[in-house]
Structures are given as C-alpha cells and as structure tokens.
TrEMBL record:
Higher taxonomy: Eukaryota, Metazoa, Spiralia, Lophotrochozoa, Platyhelminthes
Biological source species: Macrostomum lignano
Domain of life: Eukaryota
Residue ranges of domain UspA in the record: 2-151
Gene3D superfamilies xref list: HUPs
CDD domains tied to this protein: USP_At3g01520-like (cd23659)
UniProt-recorded name of the protein: UspA domain-containing protein
Length: 157
C-alpha cells in the first residue's frame, strides 16, 4: 500500500503538482492500493493592532480553518476530475497550524509514515531562496522519504 503526501495551498503550484502526479501515475496505480494525504499548513496569525483581542485572534484562526476546508472540497473535485479519487482507497485531508510549512510537512510525513511527498514550486531564484528560505528546499533537505518538487512551466523567451 502506497501513502503519498501532497503539500497543498490555494496556489496554482499545488494544483500543478497534483495534475502532474495524476498524469504520470493515474494509469499505474492499482485501485484501492494508494492513500493520498493532502496537508494544508496555516501560519498562526500574529498578535498586533488588528488582532488585539482574543475574539479577533480566534476569528483569524477560524478563517484559516475555513480556508483549509474549502481547499479540501476543491481538491476532492480535482481528484475526481483527474481520475485519482477512484484509484485511492483513501483521500485524507490534514490541517496544521504552525510557523513554517516546511517543518510541518516533514513532521506530518514522519507521523503518517508516507512513502512519498509531492509538492509544487514557485520557481524562486537562488538569491530569494538564500535569504528567505524555501519550503521545497527545506523539505528536500530534511525529509527522510523521497520528495518530488514539480517546477513551474518554462518561460518562453
């Protein structure tokens, strides 16, 4: 039984990675032999003037949870359209609240005993990655399972 973890958010990069996986693996997977896990990591909001009361902070947390649930509905629809829903014995949606998506992805991959992590890349340049860090770069260097990073399409000059 294969367990695959997808790092998802509302970006086109995450959708591109799922589409790439479906095109490559949909015809190679045995029905019911694969679990697809989708992880949405939300950054906890920072206290400040706009979130100065517990009620406002709780509202920001609820917004993040609602975004994750909305994304789960969208991913289920996409999986059905791509032919993955009928192949997987399980589509599971996980939400984590944490500082830094990279460490959360690596931790969940370990906790859920996945065999593969699939994620999209924004295609940030080396300079940006050096100073700001990169989720995919973090996962590549800290994961103990194979990681597939699907790059953005090449820019035509």
């Amino acid at each position: 039984r294969m367990r695959v973890l997808f790092a998802i958010d509302s970006s086109e990069h995450a959708k591109r990675a799922l589409t790439w996986f479906a095109k490559l693996y949909a015809n190679r997977l045995s029905p019911g032999d694969t679990a697809l896990l989708f992880l949405f990591v939300a950054e906890p909001p920072s206290f400040g003037p706009s979130l100065s009361t517990p009620e406002l902070y709780a509202g920001a947390i609820n917004d993040a949870v609602a975004e994750g649930r909305s994304l789960a509905v969208e991913i289920k629809t996409t999986c059905a359209r791509l032919g993955l829903a009928s192949l997987a014995n399980r589509l599971e949606f996980l939400e984590r609240l944490g500082h830094g998506a990279g460490p959360s992805i690596v931790q969940v991959a370990h906790e859920e005993a996945v065999e593969l992590i699939v994620m999209g890349s924004r295609g940030s340049g080396l300079l940006r990655r050096t100073f700001l860090g990169s989720v995919s770069d973090y996962v590549l260097h800290h994961s103990h399972v194979p990681v597939i990073v699907v790059p953005p399409p090449a820019v035509q000059h």
